Amino acid sequence: MQSDSDIMLLVQAGEISQFEELVARYRDRLLRFARSRSPHEAAAEDLVQDVFLAAFQGRHSYSVEFAFSTWVWTIALNLSRKQYRQRQREAQKVEDFARLPRHTLAESPLQTLTRTHQANLVHVWLNQIPEQQADAIRLRFFGELSFDDIALAMGSSVSGAKRRVKNGLLKLAELHRLSSGEW
């Protein structure tokens, strides 16, 4: 079995059909990660497609000095942050529209979705903790990355990656306690 780096060298040399192997290797983990960032399946799938598109378009900037996995996860992290900020802006527009006197909406579509789908509770909580911690948790549990890979993707030390995951989990546990009425 060829390494990811060997495949990227072939892709860079013009054997673009080899890129499909990298898609097959990373798609499921990237999709789990993307689903943790978005309550909408279509948005998660769009993110994964955008990650692979960016990786393919930037194939000539890839260097074998670095692990392909680190490179692709860094792309995923950056694009997911961009997508999240865009969704936040759109949600704010919906909330602003809902506040207009001529319309009375009980709750935004995002609030309804969050309230009615318990699976989205983790998504909501992840958006309430610091972004660095939330992303480290997403990479660890949804992307199934090692702490070494998380550190590389986030530009931190391994101990820093572990600390972000631990502190994020502690904050999630606190949010769970608060939401369940435990003090």
Task: Describe what you observe in this structure.
The chain is mainly α. It has a single domain (4-179), classed as Orthogonal Bundle (Rna Polymerase Sigma Factor, Chain: A), CATH 1.10.1740. The protein has nine helices and no strands. It has helices at 4-12, 19-37, 41-57, 68-98, 109-116, 121-126, 131-142, 147-154, 158-179. The longest helix is centred in the middle third of the chain and has 31 residues, at 68-98.
Topology at a glance:
Blueprint: H1 4-12, H2 19-37, H3 41-57, H4 68-98, H5 109-116, H6 121-126, H7 131-142, H8 147-154, H9 158-179
Query: What is the overall silhouette?
Result: globular
Please name the CATH topology: Rna Polymerase Sigma Factor, Chain: A
Oligomer: single chain
Derived from helix and strand composition plus strand pairing, the structural class reads mainly alpha
Quick one: CATH class? Mainly Alpha
Number of domains: 1
Q: What's the pLDDT, averaged over the residues? A: 85
Please report the number of helical segments: 9
> How large is the radius of gyration?
19 Å
Let me know the number of strands: 0
* Low-confidence region ranges: 100-104, 112-117
The percentage of residues in β strands lies in under 5%
Describe the largest sheet: none
Helix content: over 70%
Order of helices and strands: HHHHHHHHH
CATH superfamily: RNA polymerase sigma factor, region 2, helix turn helix motif
Q: Which CATH architecture would you pick?
A: Orthogonal Bundle
From the N-terminal CA to the C-terminal CA, the straight-line distance is 53 Å
